[in-house]
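Researcher: I've been going back and forth with a colleague about how AAA+ ATPase domain-containing protein might be arranged in three dimensions. Neither of us has a model we trust, so I'd like an independent prediction. The organism is Haloglomus irregulare, in case that matters for your notes. Sequence below.
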Amino acid sequence: MLEDGTFKEILEDRYHQYRSKADTLRDQGEYEAAAKYYRKCAGVMRDIAEKESSDRMAKKRLELVENLSSAAEKLENAGERDQEPARAGDSNPSGAPSAGGGGSGGGSSAGPDSTDENETVDAEAYLSEVPETDFGDVGGMSDLKQTLRDKVIDPLERSELYEKYNVSVVNGILLYGPPGTGKTYITEALAGELGYNFINATPDEITSSLVGEASKNVAELFEVARANQPCMVFIDEIDALAGKRSGGAQKTQSERQMVNQFLQELTDIQGEDVIVVAATNLLEEVDDAIRRSGRFDERIEVPPPDETARKAILRVHLREKPVLTEAINWNEVAEKTEGFVASDMELLATEAAYEAIDEVDSVDDIQPIAQGHIDSAIDEIEPSGPAA
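Model: Here is an independent structure prediction for AAA+ ATPase domain-containing protein. You can compare it with whatever you and your colleague have in mind.
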């Protein structure tokens, strides 16, 4: 059998993908489907607990199992009543500060490892060194990658030429498109392509109910970015941080201060070696001041992958796994995955690997991933996007 440490890593990877899928479905209002994946999360977390050598960590993971099971039950009941339920527990099984978070609907991810909303953010906790991922690790997205090369990478590499034409480098990029289309992944790959340090933060990790705290968190986040140039800052679900200002009285003083601070920071980084990439599933909900020229110069759509892109994405996520490549009907896989977004294709690779692992008796008896494993995995995955 596989060693516990190796198997635990596989389980944790599977948990993260299930959790991402569950959160996406929940934010789309697909409560029954989301409940199914939260129960899958609970099952995987229970398996992780069994692999723990520490009784304390095992207990902590079992507590998370209870939270996830409770969340699934609430989602199932909410689906029956057509009401929006509370969020599930923490999405990070490792106990480290979460770099994920909830969806665009706002709300906190209350759980055993979640950050209290009144705590000041530790901005440096979200800073990582240059990602090892680059465009070569991104399947499909050919048009998007070319756009980023033309609009972001080339001006930085040939800055003197662009200066002669009085064209400045881009400091702000706004990516928009359905959930799960790969906005986070392509941003991390862009940072890797450029050799930039990387900060990944979500509104849940920045906001606070205390007056002045959220704006202070924003300021500290950008202070860390400036201190670690060249640096790329990625903020997912920007609509939750800076939604439209219609009905100003509806915003709290803390929220108004936070938005104003964010706008000021976007202005202040002009001329700095800092690039801010924001992402949203709801472009129309983003504050007009955020979208106007001077803040985010490039607004780029990230659509769901077509058949060609789905094949490319799956190949990328399978390339470091044992696969019978010549025995897979890639066109058939592309047809069967209609409605799958980028994160679904990544999950498909993991699920197919799990199907093969189930047939393995020892670490020396490797079962390559074949067509049957992929077909079985497809049947287990709920598409995140609409079918054509």
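Researcher: What would you highlight for our discussion?
Model: I'd start with this: The longest helix spans residues 55-81. After that, consider the following. Confidence is low (pLDDT under 50) at residues 86-121.
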